Amino acid sequence: MDLDRARDFLRDHHRAVLSTFRADGRPQLSPVLIGVDDAGRAVVSTWETTAKARNLRRDPRASVLVLSDQFFGDWIRIDGIADVLSLPDALEP
Fold first, then answer.
1. Contacts 24+ apart (CB under 8 A), 1-4
2. Burial of 60 (0-12, 13-18, 19+ CB in 10 A)
3. Which of 8, 18, 31, 60 has the fewest CB atoms within 10 Å, counting from its CB?
4. pLDDT tens track for 3-50
5. Could you tell me the CA-to-CA distances from 36 to 20, 28, 65 in Å, in that order?
């Protein structure tokens, strides 16, 4: 799937599972809502104190599985390096 189609999928589908790494290397899976910002980046909002935020600050590698509303429907996986932004930097201008 090309990048534009992936972004379109994210604009229409917001349910996802985020995978980060715990300090001992085990995966941490979290259900999240995902969107796309004006720059075309996948965006997840969370509290600073969550395990996923702590994990990503320590090890920014992340994968996210974005699901359609149908259980056996379309889906995409995104792998990459996450940037964790704190308030007020996380707010869009």
1. 1/76, 3/40
2. middle
3. 31
4. 999 999 999 999 999 999 999 999 999 999 999 999 999 999 898 899
5. 19, 23, 14
